[in-house]
Design goal:
The protein is of the alpha+beta class. The protein is built from eleven helices and nine strands. It has two domains: 81 residues; 232 residues, 2-Layer Sandwich (BirA Bifunctional Protein, domain 2), CATH 3.30.930.10. A hairpin with a 2-residue loop joins strand 6 and strand 7.
Length: 342
């Protein structure tokens, strides 16, 4: 043990004689004496070789050496600070900082927010619901009972563990949930992600995004629906022309699809509009009376209209993105194009 005591004494003399005038020299001291593999750790590790009857005595000596070394470190640090040598002495604070690249919203988020903002100005509130839905809210309550042929229009992802639940095929299920717990007047838009069992390609995907709207009150007419959609097109696309075509949806009667003049070719004909000059952007119609009755809303006193559109289609017209797969590939080159968009 005398050898260990002599070694400690030699280390103390070395500590006493050590001088540091720069931050680098201070760091050298810290690593040599106080680091995880430094002298203090090594000396403390010798306790395992000390006889039990001497452990208390040597413990005090070793602890005193540790404190002595730490106090020396603090003295050196204060000395360097007093001489103007700070920890960050190598940093030139007059240099400009490193640029931080600005992030951007996803193009689908940009367009969805614009769409929702337009309808908010018309008094529509935003409603959201679960993406995992039950059959009642997604189909049956929307005038799509079991074995209804219109169910074949939507290839559905059912949950294997419980086929009564599925990934919602449209955000109309949110409308169903709102009508279930709220009495008219109802004026909502329902943005969200939906799922269809389709082959992924440039023109189709297994998930996409919708914004659907619902207005139920007394004396709501098809003219109210048309004027609402005219306002939306004016705010979103400017002076684009609009036309309505008769269509069929199980939850609306009468039903229509709405086209706008192609914003890419100006109605002259291109690949986007299939050389017709028109692009279909949404489906709409008057809420089917049976759907109102399903939720205890008197269809004799109340009427309503509904509409639904794909965010990807509107985004395609706004930004001319022709491949749906780009939206979900997280390609930074694609996303950077939208920096600065609101």
């Amino acid at each position: 043990m005398d050898e260990l005591l002599q070694q400690i004494e030699n280390y103390k003399q070395e500590v006493t004689a050590y001088n540091a005038s720069t931050q680098d020299e201070l760091e050298t001291y810290r690593i040599k004496f106080l680091g995880t593999k430094g002298i203090v750790k090594t000396v403390l590790g010798e306790m395992k070789n000390v006889p039990n009857e001497s452990k208390k005595e040597f413990g005090l000596i070793l602890n005193a050496f540790k404190v002595f070394t730490e106090e020396k470190f603090e003295q050196l640090k204060e000395s360097i600070s007093a001489n103007g040598q700070q920890v960050s002495s190598k940093i030139d604070w007059s240099l400009p900082g490193d640029p931080v690249p600005a992030g951007t919203r996803h193009p689908l988020s940009i367009v969805r927010n614009q769409m929702v903002s337009i309808f908010k100005r018309l008094g529509f509130a935003v409603a959201e619901g679960p993406e995992i839905e039950d059959d009642w809210h997604n189909f049956t309550a929307l005038n799509l009972p079991e074995n209804h042929p219109a169910r074949d229009m939507q290839d559905t992802f059912y949950l294997h563990q419980n086929p009564d639940y599925l990934l919602r095929t449209h955000t109309s299920s949110v409308q169903a949930r709102i009508m279930e717990k709220q009495k008219p007047p109802i004026r909502i838009v329902c943005p969200g992600r939906v799922y269809r069992n389709e082959t992924i390609s440039a023109r189709a995907h297994c998930f996409f995004h919708q914004v659907e709207g619902l207005y139920v009150d007394e004396n709501v007419s098809f003219a109210d629906l048309k004027q609402t959609l005219y306002f939306f097109v004016k705010e979103m696309f400017g002076d684009a022309k609009v036309r309505f075509r008769p269509s069929y949806f199980p939850f609306t009667e009468p039903s229509a699809e709405m086209d706008i003049s192609c914003t890419v070719c100006g109605g002259k004909g291109c690949s986007l509009c299939k050389h017709t000059g028109w692009v279909e952007i949404l489906g709409c119609g008057m809420v089917h009376p049976k759907m109102l009755d399903n939720f205890g809303i008197d269809s004799e006193n109340y009427t309503g209209f509904a509409f639904g559109m794909g965010v990807e289609r509107i985004c395609q017209l706004k930004f001319r993105v022709n491949d749906l797969r780009l939206y979900s590939q997280n390609d930074i080159r694609f996303l950077r194009q939208f920096t600065g968009a609101v």
